[in-house]
Specification:
Blueprint: E1 2-8, H1 13-24, E2 29-35, E3 40-45, H2 52-60, E4 66-68
Antiparallel strand pairs: 1-3, 1-4, 2-3
């Protein structure tokens, strides 16, 4: 499943990389691609292995960012 999530707090490519890596490290996530201009991330994931809240927690646990469901 592909889904787009809004992420607040991203300002640069370094931020984008941190968010992408946090999401990609989740079991069941196939890919994550940040669009800095739109302040969002597109995630391709397996619904039976990872939930929206897992993705949200992975990003929010970084401390500087807030993923909105």
């Amino acid at each position: 499943m592909n889904k787009v999530f809004t992420v607040n707090g991203m300002k640069c490519e370094h931020c984008a990389t941190k968010v992408e890596n946090a999401i990609k490290n989740l079991n069941g996530v196939n890919s994550a691609k940040v669009d800095l201009a739109n302040h969002d991330v597109t995630v391709d994931f397996e619904e039976e292995k990872v939930k929206d809240t897992d993705i949200q927690n992975a990003v929010n646990d970084l401390g500087k960012f807030e993923l909105i469901l």
